[in-house]
Design goal:
With 484 residues, the protein is of the alpha/beta class. 39% of the residues lie in helices and 24% in strands. The protein contains twelve helices and 18 strands. The protein has helices spanning 22-37, 64-72, 114-127, 184-188, 252-260, 269-278, 319-335, 343-375, 380-394, 398-407, 414-434, 456-483; strands at 12-18, 44-48, 61-62, 85-87, 89-94, 97-102, 109-111, 131-143, 150-157, 166-175, 196-207, 217-221, 228-232, 237-244, 282-288, 302-304, 437-442, 445-449. A hairpin with a 2-residue loop joins strand 17 and strand 18 (445-449). Helix 1 (22-37) runs parallel beside helix 7 (319-335), helix 10 packs across helix 11 and helix 11 (414-434) packs antiparallel against helix 12. The chain starts with 11 loop residues before the first strand and ends with a helix. Mean pLDDT is 93; it is low at 1-9.
């Protein structure tokens, strides 16, 4: 839909969406399609700073739960024709030893180049009836001088002769401008929560690399450093993400060459070395931002969506799954509102939406950070939990099926996650007492032995430390999700 420039000064819409990324593009298409079906078409404007294909190192793995949400939105075609690769689960590697963690039968995810997927979503938004896609930089919110309610935004179009800070008005403004949101604090006000940065992912693309298990995400747990994540995103391309904690090493290339690559499977050594030589290292902060309820203490007339409002660690690849599920829920609730300018009704919808999204969002949020704390462990007690988690997966059966269903966004059950997390803690303690461990090195070879009875008192004390560590890792995350 193309708006006439003659009425630019009075451009008014039902919904204004800032940011044509994952959440923004999906919401524009979903609201338009569903409103037309209900014979109540909405006028929607989707504003994006740059409609060029984005180039990012995250947002490239969509879990099966995300595929399910994509189908509910009528956007499943967006993973076709972009050289997307089916994914069927994970391979976790510790000390060179792999454990296979497949998705439940009948489920699959997709991995792809982020930019290609975004362009496919934007194309669907453009095709939607009553959606106007505008390339413009939003500079400020328009607020009512009397009430402070947001009436729209001011933006400058990316074209010759564009008028500075052109006004765009709407009954409801949705801010979906990503993790570096310019409007988060202004919208949330006193309800704003601080963003916690848990290091960075450094990304490269490997050419024609062979993963330990094809079409599976690979999580390599490297000694002394954070986890390394790999997954195939194209016929010839494999993404590698190296976790780097703060402070970031001054010579990242040398750090990866010397400390990380030697601990990866041998089939990845040469492709990784070549990628470092020819490619530029890209960094992305690993941020965590709990979702604070909107509608009560936040600014009227506007809401946040996607990473502008809620972020989790990207290790588990759950961000897009949460975003699409959020759009599914929000679409149906907003379409039931007879007047989008009625903030009391919108506020009730936002509170209802906040509760409805919790089963999935809380599960993914908690799992992402808890798993990162275990997989990125430098603390000897956390390393006990990490080993226990790895051996727990080796048991197979429900020890794999249920946890991977949570990770994949298939199951939405925070208390199932609670049960498995503390079962892992107890199993880790069992391993301390019963499994052989390295006691010394002879002629360059490690010697393993089971604990002796005289070591049991020391191990009992260590067991208490292990369980307490599990509590202080998991319970604050659960409390954050319950509290907010």
């Amino acid at each position: 839909m193309t708006a006439s420039r003659d009425n630019m000064w009075s451009a008014s819409y039902d919904i204004l969406i800032v940011g044509a990324g994952i959440a923004g593009s999906a919401l524009a298409h979903a609201l338009s399609a569903a409103s037309v079906e209900r014979s109540r078409p909405l006028r929607i404007c989707l504003l994006e700073r740059s409609l060029a294909e984005p180039d990012r190192i995250v947002g490239e793995l969509l879990q099966p739960g995300g595929i399910m949400a994509l189908k509910k939105l009528g956007l499943e075609s967006c993973v076709e024709g972009i050289d997307a690769i089916p994914t069927y689960g994970y391979c976790v590697m510790l000390g060179g030893k792999p454990v296979h963690i497949p998705y439940p039968e009948g489920y699959e995810g997709r991995a792809f180049h982020h930019g290609r997927f975004i362009q496919a979503l934007r194309a669907k938004a453009r095709e939607a009836a009553c959606v106007e896609v505008v390339e413009a930089t939003v500079s400020e919110l328009i607020e009512c001088p009397m009430t402070g309610r947001v009436l729209g935004v001011r933006a400058t179009r990316k074209e010759e002769g564009a008028i500075e800070k052109e006004p765009f008005y709407a009954d409801l403004t949705v801010i979906a401008d990503g993790c570096f949101s310019n409007f988060r604090n202004q919208v949330m006000g006193k309800a704003a929560l601080p963003t916690e940065v848990k290091g960075h992912f450094v990304g490269l693309i490997l050419e024609d690399a062979t993963l330990p298990i094809p079409k599976h995400g690979t999580v390599a747990l490297v000694e002394g450093h954070g986890p390394v994540l790999l997954y195939q995103i194209g016929t010839h391309d494999t993404r590698i993400l190296v976790d780097v904690k703060n402070p970031v090493p001054s010579d990242l290339k040398n750090h990866i060459l010397q400390n990380i690559i030697p601990q990866l499977p041998s089939s990845l050594h040469l492709p990784a070395q070549k990628a470092i030589e020819k490619d530029r290292l890209r960094r992305m902060p690993n941020s965590f931002l709990p979702p604070s309820e909107q509608g009560k203490r936040t600014k009227e007339g506007v809401m946040l969506l996607g990473d502008s409002w809620n972020m989790r660690h990207p290790l588990t690849g759950g961000g897009m799954t949460v975003a699409f599920n959020d759009v599914v829920l929000l679409r149906d609730m907003l379409l039931d509102v007879p007047d989008l300018a009625d903030w009391k009704e919108i506020s009730r919808v936002l509170q209802k939406w906040h509760r409805a999204r919790k089963p999935l969002a809380s599960t993914v949020n908690i799992l992402s950070v808890a798993l990162y704390d275990l997989f990125g462990a430098h603390d000897p007690i956390l390393e006990v939990l990490r080993t226990g988690c790895f051996k727990y997966f080796e048991l197979g059966g429900n020890c794999v099926r249920e946890p991977v269903s949570l990770l994949a966004g298939i199951e939405q059950a925070p208390f199932m996650l609670f049960r498995h997390f503390f079962t892992v803690a107890l199993y880790s303690i069992w391993i301390l007492f019963t499994h052989p461990r390295q006691v010394r090195v002879v002629d360059g070879k490690p010697v393993h032995a089971r604990p002796r009875p005289d070591e049991y008192p020391f191990l009992a004390i260590k067991s208490l430390q292990v369980f307490w560590t599990a509590v202080i890792v998991f319970m604050p995350l659960l409390w954050q999700e319950i509290r907010y």
